[in-house]
Amino acid sequence: MTDDIGISIADVDPHLLRTFVAVAETGSFSAAAQRLRYTQSAVSQQIAALEADLGTALLTRRPVALTTAGERLHRHANLILVRLEAARADVTRAIAPPGRLILGLTPLAWSEPVSAALARIRGDSARLRSHVLVDGRDRIVTAAATGEIDLALVDGFTAPNDPLRLPEPGAQVAVGVAGSPAVVAVPDRHPLARRAALDLNDLADAYWIDAPMVAPFSRLPVDGLRAGLRYEGADVTVLTGLVAAGHGLIVLPAPLVERRPGLTGVPIAAPRLVHRVELLRTPNDEEPAGRLAALLGAQPLQ
Asked: What is an example of a GO molecular function annotated in this UniProt entry (predicted)?
């Protein structure tokens, strides 16, 4: 493989690429060493070896920054590493005993239909080994792309009829599973609870809850909002409890708010938003993942 500046990367050691990506993403040799559990000296040696192999400087040292060649390599490196992990996972599936289902999902992607479909599949096979992984959207998308999980359900807020904007999914295909109105969740006693609808652009002075794993504050299509509290967990019950206690507002799916005592969901007039759940499938997904997708009634996105 050769990139657009003529550098051959077909024989590059994947371990060196991983180290390079860690330095590029953290902007620091010491931070990359902590992430990879290497010594800083080992990271420096691996970057030097990669640069010697490719015959060009990839990073400046003080400050640490990507060179032009480094920027181009970085565009390729993540995809190369994902494809390597996907190949490894595919081989592992070929030699693994049958009857494995690993479902990955973001916290708000779980629903009663998902639970019922999973229960039906598990009920049909007493020997099925099932595992549910709950994490943030980027982590779940990557895990699906590398084959770490068999099927992924991810959620987010978007304009009506628009698909979610997901990270590079590799060979996966996004299919729609469910959708519902998006609302601003507020305590029942909050003055905004009496409003018929809200414009998010008018709420710059309100305090919001930033919940990166559940409902990322940064992904709302509005500028100027400020977070009064940051919640790092994935427990939706804890999050809605924080809202009910008055710690801040958050955008959530309407059905979720309706089931939580102490909360009111105020419709959003602008910008128009809906909550979408999408399922990520690979062209070669096998049973029981394929059957779970069929039970969920997933339809290709138009």
From this structure: DNA binding
